[in-house]
Amino acid sequence: MPTPQPAILGDLETHQWYVHMSRTEGADLGVIKAALAATRADAADQGVNLCLLFGPTLLADLTDDIPDDFQAYPGYTSPDGSKTAKGTQEELLLWVHSDSKDLCWEVQHTFRTAVAGHMAVARETITWVYKNSLDLTGFIDGTGNPEPGDQHDRGIVPDGETGAGGAFCIAQRWVHDLDYWAGLSLEDQENTFGRTKADSTKLEVQVPTSHLSHVELKDGAPAGTEGPAKRGEMVRRSTPYAFHDGTVGLYFMGFCKTQAPMRERMEAMYGMGGEALDAITDYSTPASGSYYFAPSVETLDAAL
Ligand code: HEM
């Protein structure tokens, strides 16, 4: 049975380091493969959680074990053009997490140094777990995640399928307008997500703009409806960040055994099927967005 990279479903440690990279002109794939293999060994030796995630182009140069429906992130725009989640697809995402921030730095730095001249860093974000898994809005993020015993089933490509043991990923850096947020009443804040702020209880009435009305996908019923079974569930591992210039927000990181439910949620949040826009888009905008695939341990062993 193919094994998922352990960093995906294991405990989310306090410090996260995200580095998105793509190949430069004339890059030597052999150098990149050797650096990836050495970084896996380094992270394992140091007990640091490392997840290697690939965009469609680099993955195709490493392995054939790729599910059919793996697409690059297209970007999403509301029909009236007022809201956009821009696409910033890259070829590689190095995700490192550990309770020791120094080790996160070291692992990613060693890799970057090893591929200098072959890969360029497009973006880098350092994030952390905030109190009891809060978003910076003060709302608990993760309540609706599948139970731990169900996460493998929801997040990992099943045995027997191409890409088995791997996981589709969406990675986005959302920028929050916390001044706008602070000006909302508690009722408006709770309606934004469709859950209470104090303890994340689901509201009985979901307004059409609530986040749950867009992302809690249901069998044969509109998203957010109470009762019917959930479908297309994802496993989220999002954490907040804050930059020195005052930019703050959520680093959204989600995994799924297929990509389509992630695309469906993004299209719904941006009203692309005629829905009301997700109220999150009133106060937050993604500065980046990409889709990746995290191959199984065995596929990485064979490819590197
Ligand atoms: C600024 C960006 C976002 C914020 C602050 C945010 C925050 C939240 C919060 C507070 C909840 C309710 C508590 C929970 O279940 O975790 C939630 C639920 C959820 N969100 Fe988001 N979210 C964001 C973006 C997204 C995106 C882009 C997706 C998918 C593409 C997504 C998918 C989900 C899912 C699947 C749930 C659980 C629904 C269920 O209960 O089944 N979220 N989010």
Task: Explain what this protein looks like in three dimensions.
The chain is an alpha+beta fold and 304 residues long. It has one domain: 2-Layer Sandwich (Alpha-Beta Plaits), CATH 3.30.70.1030. The protein has helices at residues 6-9, 29-46, 56-60, 101-114, 151-155, 178-182, 186-193, 212-215, 260-269, 297-303; strands at 15-23, 49-54, 76-77, 84-85, 92-98, 119-128, 167-176, 235-236, 239-242, 248-256, 284-294. The longest helix is centred in the N-terminal third of the chain and has 18 residues, at 29-46. Protoporphyrin IX containing FE is lined by residues 135, 139-144, 170, 174, 193, 195, 200, 211-212, 215-216, 230, 234, 250, 252, 254, 262, 265-266, 280, 284.
The tally of domains stands at 1
Topology, number of strands:
11
Largest sheet: 5 strands, antiparallel
- Amount of helix: 25-40%
CATH superfamily: Apc35880, domain 1
Please state the CA-atom Rg, rounded to the nearest Å. 19 Å
* Ligands and ions found: protoporphyrin IX containing FE
What fold name stands as the CATH topology?
Answer: Alpha-Beta Plaits
CATH class: Alpha Beta
| Secondary-structure element pattern, one letter each | HEHEHEEEHEHEHHHEEEHEH
| CATH architecture assignment name | 2-Layer Sandwich
Distance between the termini: 19 Å
Low-confidence stretches: none
Classify the secondary structure makeup into a structural class. alpha+beta
